[in-house]
Automatic annotation (TrEMBL):
Residues 437-800 form the CCR4-Not complex component Not1 C-terminal domain. PANTHER family: CCR4-NOT TRANSCRIPTION COMPLEX, CCR4-NOT TRANSCRIPTION COMPLEX SUBUNIT 1. It holds the Pfam family ARM_Cnot1. This is CCR4-Not complex component Not1 C-terminal domain-containing protein.
Amino acid sequence: MRLYDMFDQNNTFASQQQQQQQQQPTIRFTENNASSYLVNNGTSSTVGSGSPLGLNTDLNLEQILLELDRLIRTSGITTCALLPPNHDICLRMRQIPLIISQSITPMQTLLTFVEKVVYMLYKSNSTFALEAYTGFLQSLFELSREVEKETMTWIVYSNDERKYNAPVIAMLMRHEMIPLEDYDVLLAKAIKNPPHKVDYAVDLLSLCLLPSNPITLLEDHALTIAALREIYDKSDTSLLSRVKILLKELGERAKRPYISIDKREDLDCLQLRMLLAEWTRLSQHSMTSQKIYRQFARKVLRITKDKNGQSFFFRLCTETCLEHFLSFKSLSAAFQNRTMQLIDAYAKLVAYMIHVSDNNKEEEEELASEKIDIAARSFSVVILVLAQHHETRGMHFNQKAFLRILSSLYAELMNNQHHHYNNNNNNNNNNKKKKHSFSTLVYNGILRAYSDTLYTLQPTTFPGFAFSWLQLISHRTFMPQLLAAPTLLIGSDRRQQQQQEQKKQGWMICEKLLLELLKFLGPLLDRQQLEKATRQFYRGTLRFLVVLLHDFPEFLSEHYMVFVQVIPHSCIQLRNLVLSAFPRMMHLPDPFTPELLPMDHPKEGEENNVLSEFKQDPFLVTSYTKVLSAEFRGAIDDFVQIQHESFHIMSFQYMMDDGIYRPDVLGAFVLYIGSKTIIATYGKKNQEMEEQPAIIAYKRLLTEMSSEGRYILLNSVADHLRYPNSHTCFFSKTLLHLFATQSEELKEQITRVLLERLIVNRPHPWGLLATFIGLIKSPGFWDHEFIRCAPDIERLFDNVSRYIKRTT
C-alpha cells in the first residue's frame, strides 16, 4: 500500500506487502491536494465517496479533523497530561471512531483518515500537537492492526527522505510505537551510506537521550552511536562538530553516576555500555558461535584489566539493567522482553567471563579460585546495589528486577559449568577425571558464593526483598542442589575437605537459610491481625516446607529442633509440618493399634510387643544447644547424675529474662535433659518414672511456673512426639505420667496442648496421634469437668471418641 504519494518515491516493500497492495485500494494523498482537501473541505477520489452515505461520512470526518486541528493550535496547553477528559479535543477524538464505524466501508475509510492524521502529525510544530496526534494515531491503530502495520511500515522502512523528522520519530518512540532495535539498524545504515543522515541522527539522539527524562536508553541506539563514532574517527570535516558534542555529552551522562568513585581514566563508561549493548545483540542471534562468545568475553576482560575494573563493569551493567527495568511504567510485551533479554545477556556474559578467565594457569586450585572470585564479585555488586535501592527508595523499592538478575546469574553460571565440562570431555579417562574434579570444585564454589549472597540478603535485613528471597531459596535448581550434595566442597585444601566430608555442609547452609526465613516470619505471625502480604508469605513458606517434607524428610527430621525453636507456638500447622518428617525408609505403624506405647512396667512376655524403633535414638543435630550456656549444660549433666535442690534455682535464672520466659531456652532444656535421662536410664529396668531426673525437673518447673510458663513447657515436651524412636517413647510416657499424677488444671493444659495440634489441618505427627489416643483411653479421662465445659468442646470430644471406638 502507498500511504502517501508524497512519500511514495523509491518505495520498496516486501513481496508479502505488495500482495496486500493488490488486494486493497491504493490511497493517494499528496501534499498539495492534502492541504486543499482539508482547507476547502473538498472531496477527492477517496474511499467511500461513491455513495451519498460515504460522501457524508468523509465530509463529517474532514470537518471534525479541521476543528480538531484548530483546537490543538489554539488551546494553549503544553502537554496532554494537563488535558481534562471532557475537553473539546478529547470529545472530537472520541467522536471520530464512531463515525468511521458507521461508514459502508469502515476499513477503507479508516485507512484514508489515518493518512490525513499522519500528514497533520508531520506538519505539527508544537510538542503538544505532536503528542496529541501521536496519541490519537495510537488509538486509531487499536481499531485495526492491518492499518497499524501499513502505516508503521512506511514510517520505519520506506526510503523517502521526508520521513526523517526527528521530533515525530522521537514522539513515536515515546509512545512505544516504533521497534527500537530495527530502527537502530536502519538508521546506522543510513548514516554509513549516502546520503549520510548524520544531522538527523544527532537530532534524534539529542531528543531521545539528552532530556532530563530520556525517552529511550543508550542501548536502544547502540549501532547508531557506533556508526557516529566511526564517521567521527574517520573524518575531520567541520560538519561533524555536532557529533563530537553529542558523543561528549553522552559520555558525561554515562559517567555522571560514578563521579564519586575513584576515577579510572582507562575505563570509558560509554564504551562499557556499548559493549553490553553489543553483547546483548550478539546473544539474541541463534547463529552466534561459542567461539565468538569466548572472543567477546576475552575482550571484556582485557578492557576491564583487573579486579577493580571487573567490579566497576559489573556495577555499571547491573545498574544499566535496573535502569531499563525501571524506566518504563507501562511496558508492552515487546519492551518487557527487551528488558529481560538485557538482564539475561548480562548474566550470560558473566558466565563466559568466568569460563575464559586465566585458562593459562597451571595450578588447578588457583584457576578455580579465580573463577569463583569473579562469580562472587558479580554477586557482591548485586548486594550493594540492592542495599542502596532498598534504602533510598523505601516503599517504592522494586524487587522484581533484582529477582531476575540473581536468578539469571545463578542459572547461567550453573548451566555454563555443566555445558563446558561436557564439551571439554574426551576419551582420556585420566583427563576426564581431572576435568570432573576441577568442574566440581568450581561448581561448588559458585554454589557456596550464591548461598552466601542469599544469606546476606535475608528478609530480616531487607524486608522489601522478602518475597523474591523466598522464591530464590526455594527454587527447584538451588535448594535440591544443596540438600542432595551433603559433602559440599569448601576452599581448596583437600585435607580440610576430607575432614569435613561427613559434616553435610549443604545441609548446614540450608539450615541457616531456613532459620532466617522462620525468624522473619515468626514476629509477623504473632500479630493479632495478619496483613494480606503476611498471609501470602506464610502460604509460600508452608508450600516450601511441604516440598521439603516430601522430597527431603531426613533434613527436616534431623534439624527439627533448630526450626521449632524459632516457630511461634501460635503457628501450630507450621510446627506440625516440621515435626511430621520421618526417614523415608521407615514404615509408620497404625497409631490406633492397641497398647502401642510401652508401659512403665510391662509384664513378662509383653516386652517383645514393643516397637523396636522405640529403642533407637533419632539422628539429631546438636546446634540447638547453642542457646544453653556451657555452665548451664554442665549443671544439667551434674543433675542427671546427682539430683540436688540448687539446680532448680539456677534453671529459673537461665529460662527467664526480665521476668519473661525464653521459649528457645526452655525448649532446648527440655530436650537436653530428656536425652541425657534416656542415656542414663539405659539398662535400668523397673525404674519408676517419678525417679527419673528429667521427670523431677519437669514437675518442679510445672509447680513453680505460671500458667504461661507451663503452657510453654508442655508444648516443648509435645514437640518431640514424632516418628517412633526413643525420644518419642520417652516424652509420650512423660505426658501420660504427668496427666496421671498432676492437678486438674495441669491435666486440662495437657489436653489443650495435644488437642489444639490435632484440630488443625494435616499433617499430624505420628507420636502426637499415638499419645492422644493413649490419653483418651486412660481410665477416668471422660469424667473430667473440662471435657464438658462448653458444648463445642463436648461435641468435639464425642466425635473423637466415636472415631476411636470405630478404629479399635
